[in-house]
């Protein structure tokens, strides 16, 4: 296979269009202020984008199966809360803060997976319910207030630090991207995920344990959301109520703008990453240019629609 | 299961229990009598003149002339890819021809949409059912234009209309308010036909309409076709079942490579000649030679008192390495459920299964596929259960065996592709690019991909569920040869089919199912039409060969 | 199988939901210290009816196998427009009401056009349009405020004959004038067909595009009605995004609890109405049983999860695992 063909195989149309949109956004922004194309700003966007991007990696795995994960908002919050809470437990706590938070996210993800895979409840409604339960648990634990615990030093460094100028948050994101891409492209698990997203029935009859794979993907989504919560808490040095709420719809938008098909079976890791970056830059520019909140919401919605219309619409009929 | 009608009437077997005497008369009427009794109009109702249709660079139809007349059954035969489906799509208005003209009653017509064709009286009943599962039978029958007043559905009129049509197809036991979802596949097909009749067709196209039907419903369809012929309706009938066509058709057209190779009256050519026209080469044997039966029996899989709900009752069966055992009997007697049970799909199965002498508990397809058990199931619905149509041929083929190509967590693409290419060569799958989606292949080639997928797992026990359904004669032959080859190499094969000719031609033994249990096992020379049919109907055969009344 | 038995078999879900709601509401009234007072009934009904109407809107879309993530946003947009227009003389009030309903209908039509002509997945379309509608709401009401014609608001939120809340009468009117004609109409049947098996419906010549357009537009109208009504209840307009989001998600929950399938083709608005009533009664029950406030969100979430999981019980009765797959 020639290099060009291999490249064309790896880079699909939505990723290209999304990348083009990112470039265009920055160019338009540069007309307003040259700061928008400065390295400082771009690196900052990578950093902020990582908080959203980490979520999109996990969400992509779920969307590829043809499902959704609406428990993201409160799993993010829970991740931040659990990490800061553990950090208040002395030296051992500080060391285990991040793993503990990830474990909590994993646990919630497994519950989601069991509901969808074993109980066969539509993911939209089950993860919605789980979101409400996690919210209840977090509120119960914190007594309704923002916890006094502070983020650990590691959490803070991961969120705001840098390695050779590259934000460490972005590096965490990049690491996750590599792992996800590795799994999806090179391992049998990746093949099974795409197969399930296309037709679970036939995949089951091919001798694949589809239930475990569903649980795996939801667990991954839970862990990624918790990780984002850890980073967010590290950024603000503390966790606060409902800190995950603003991230659900942008995460979904990022995944879809990256070319993933909401019905499952199609999508790329690179696309989800670029989509997440696109959404981040868009929201950031709207906020920096002091566009009124009302207009911000309208422009955000219009741009999503325009890009979806450009991507090439679905085949006429679902078969 | 379709049994050739003349056989029943000719060999002196009594009528199947469900057939009433006046229906018997109707049955006789189809066999030859009606061809002379009814007087179909001589002028063609529909005429296609020099029709061509190209897809990309390939000619699906090339300068085709075709005509059919009212009051006659015109059978269209041909391999998959020969142009039959394009022909009926053009007739029913789904696609437009690139060249040529269509004449209806001598007038030139052109259909922009299927709805236009329907308005002119052309209605099609296709393989893909067009029923809505969550709506009732009557809602489905009147789907496109229900009787209504100011936009609100007139329920009483709808009920009357549906009841009338159900009576016409002979299915008065179907409640019009029942959801289609709760009907069996056979019943759904009958509702589909009733729906087509509701459009008042002058020409009705039946594309493999009987393939999903039980024996009873097949009879009902034959009766219906006889009545339609009397009423002067033109019928275009597509089927791969030669004996069905031999008894139903007045005229036949054979298509090959997009051309109408021959149109003739039924009876002008023998079945062999017709098949020869279809595949364009001489062929003598449909089924490969059977091996000599004396071989040491080495049991590959032993089934001991297997039961599931009330669909499978105490089935005990043993299949040896190198044996092809057929599952015969009427449709829906538990054969499919047995295969599903062996593959681990059913819950609550009791009994024992031993593979190579070792008890195994098969709780899921994954266990069944595992090396310790080594069972493979080729499901009968290849489009939704066997293959994943949007995915590539390559990905489909390796889906069940991908674990074999994994080295240190990663799939070794090179060895995977090498093996896939080898399979494509061995099975003679007609494709130029294995990266293309599998739904670009014809039905026969898709089935080959499906079988290759399971061969790649190295399974030694193969469960084949109606593997040749909806497949052209040429590919069927290849599959029969393949099955025999696999058996010769030591595989144990359990073969469920609704076509008793395949049972006779392919199998070393046949287990006839009735009401969930094995009624009778036939071996070697005992596998005859007579024995299969009588066992299927649960008839006892006395010593002098005359069947008695059915056992209760 | 008699006609009655068939009807029961096909409608058991909304009936079950109604029974559950009746039990819960009965418990609430029984345990409430205030007992049976019409004022309590009025308040409960007002709150429940708002969600019920949004749930009805969501039902229409879900039947076609779509989802409307903008339902809550159409609702708050209508609320904000009402808080600006439905004031003044009766003539102005009448015009204002017309304006609100028109806005809701137009919003629904937008959704429909994008889904049908744009051929985009409903979940993404409504996610984007929800943002747009929310922005429009915010530009009309940057801060909560505005007002509404007082006498009309008083009337709509109280009761008549001292016993029946006007809100329930409004709900009944919507059912009789909008839902029932839709359910029994040809276009309504087309919607169910499109949701149940779109490709089969297309092959049968069902005008799927037209059907979906009607569903989304009607949903927008209902969202407008809900937003108008809540203005009477709160006497102001509030464009806070979280309110809209909560209503959207609650409407989806109500739809599922009421027996409508998220896969389309099955269910109806009656079940969703009882689903909404049930959700609201859970909140009231928690208050009445004096659960510590901190436990309330957890309990609410847990009950929601259980309620939507009830449908999963049938899974355990499946003997053929293939039936568990779509």
Low-confidence stretches of chain C: none
- How confident is the prediction overall: mean pLDDT of chain C? 90
CATH H-level homologous superfamily name of the largest domain in chain B: P-loop containing nucleotide triphosphate hydrolases
The spatial strand order of the largest sheet of chain B comes to 6-9-10-3-11-12
- The portion of residues forming beta strands of chain C comes to under 5%
User: What oligomeric arrangement do these chains adopt?
Assistant: heterotrimer
Distance between the termini of chain C: 27 Å
What can be said about the biggest beta sheet of chain B?
6 strands, mixed
- Give the number of domains of chain B: 3
Largest interface: A-C, 57 and 55 residues
| Low-pLDDT windows of residues of chain B | 1-40, 541-552
Count helical runs of chain B: 19
N-to-C SSE string of chain C, H for helix and E for strand: HHHHHHEEHHHHHHH
Quote the distance from N terminus to C terminus of chain B: 21 Å
Helix content of chain B: 25-40%
